[in-house]
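As a warm-up, study this chain.
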Amino acid sequence: MSELDRRSVIAGLPAAAALAAAPRLAAAAPAAQPVFGAETFTLANGLTGVVIPMRRAPVVAHMVWYRVGAADEPPGLSGMAHFLEHLMFKGTPNVGPGEFSRRVAREGGRDNAFTGHDYTGYFQQVAADRLELVMRLEADRMANLLLDPKDIEPERLVILEERRQVIENVPLRRFRERLAPLLYVNHPYGRPVIGWEHEIRAIPREALVAFHERYYGPGNAILVVQGDVTTDQVRRLAEVTYGRLPRTGRVERRRPQEPPAVGERRLALADPRVREPQMARLFLAPTARQAPDEADALEVLAHVLGSGPTSRLWRALVDSGLAASASAAYGGESVDPTEFALHASPRPGVEPARVEAALGEALARLLDEGAGEEEVSRAIRQMTAGAVFARDSLMGGARTVGAALAVDLPLAHVEHWPARIAAVTPARVTEAARAVLRPEAAVTGWLTPDGNRS
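Now compare it with the structure written out below.
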């Protein structure tokens, strides 16, 4: 799913998820060794805590994830989760509008926030001895957000301008926005995270207040701290900050689900600002929550198909001179069924129909012959080659672990990812490909200067 950052959009055609914006595990240590070595605790009021010790420098990353995103909005109010994310910086009775970020900056830190379909997250990077400060600030706005009408209307205009800048003025993002409802004909993943313009304009204050009261409680939140700390230190600080908030429970997600995909669907979008045509082919795919073994195989399949010069699509489309680029992506870290995506961009002078035909032939060959031992082994080596560096990024572990827990994946899903990927076989990759890459269920889109693919 796509993910919106408060100051910039993490955009593009499907990735995952990833996580739309979270760094993926590039890593693989010995099978028995956890990737991050995260430790967990739970406060009496329901808050889940995660600590990833990292002693390289006296700094910490502090994140709060809420198990709510754009897919949890009421019908007709798309963009409300993202709107509320903006308004979380507008103050409480204790902290004035904009003062949260100014306090973090005065301490030499930085902060930001992001919204996805399944979660909303807030983070700060500060010196380790300032951790209690950001915890108090974050706990304050979890419980005491004002949502003053004088702040809501100006921020609504900011978001409408953001939509114009990052969606309407960027043809590829506009294309992606229009393609999603063809894949998700009933599920709210088909709605844009930022919202449709007419619905952003219609979101009332009362709905924002109710949304915050329902979802922004400790029982629906995950605290993740990575850096120069111990679990005992973080728990003690959490008890005197978040622990003082009243207990709340987990909020059950109730969403309409997709019917079985029937019939190929197509989109041809014209935009004179486009220099070179872009193709996307999407398939509905299971998530790691629903089918963890199949999800691992789909990750390897995406690498086999579209991960650079040794991949099947690259050889079929780029090496043949038909396309300037070709790739594949799968993001299994979501609450509900996700997407497996293929992308290609024809070379100048090459008719789009030739690229689409070649892509179809490459897929048919894979489904007919199955995945080979050599290409699967190579994909696994490439995917897990850099795992020793997975903990080098201050935010990398916090974002990866937080995003997984926010969609109800177990911590082991992250910690033992390298060993699971190493266990994927060619037979499993072939089985996953045949289950997901069904031509009769595909969504195909073309973005061209004139709207014509032929």
